[in-house]
Amino acid sequence: MAAVATAGAVVAVTAGVALTWPRPDAPTPPPPAAAAPTPLNCVLTLPSEPADVELRVLNGGVPAARLQSTAVALRERGFSLRFTQTAADPETTTVLRYGPAAIGAAHLMRAELHGDVTMRFDPAHRDKAVDVILAPSFDRLATPTEINQNLVTAGEPTAPPQC
Fold first, then answer.
1. Boundaries of each LytR/CpsA/Psr regulator C-terminal domain copy (predicted)?
2. Which helix (H) or strand (E) is 20 found in, with range?
């Protein structure tokens, strides 16, 4: 009985070693997949009113008087405004910089601006504020009719590829 048990143990150990022993002809298993990046919480809904949109107005080269008058007009339209005269890097067109929590707000804000506007999604921009960087080419806000036309033309906000 002891001889049978010993022989069984030897067979089991030999089989286990043979199965796990590396063989040069066997393909190596692929390395473990990298962890998928955490998806961003992207907010695509349009704000129900301008007070729900938080703005930071930055000078991207626009004259100071136009910067001031635009800030006043945005406040009069009901936007929550953190006005700052801190100069951003000079821009050639007005820029809206926003993050995942402000996609819908940036979409609405784009409709408020007349002329060329560059939309810049920044996944690292974690608050819900939209940075409005006014360039020298900026001349005015859109009229109510232009805002409605801009919203219809733009359609619903869409998620950037990072979302």
1. 52-138
2. helix 2-20
Tokens encoding 61: 């080269």
CATH of the domain at 95: 3.30.70
What is the tally of structural domains in the chain? 1
**Residue 149 resides in a domain:** yes
Contact 43, 100 (CB under 8 A): yes
Gap between the terminal Cα atoms of the chain:
67
Per-residue pLDDT tens digits for 123-154: 999 899 999 999 999 999 999 999 999 999 99
From residue 6, alpha-carbon distances to 2, 13, 15, 19, 151 in Å are 6, 11, 14, 20, 82
3-class SS of residue 53: coil
> Quick check: pTM over 0.85?
no
Classify residue 107: in a domain, yes or no.
yes
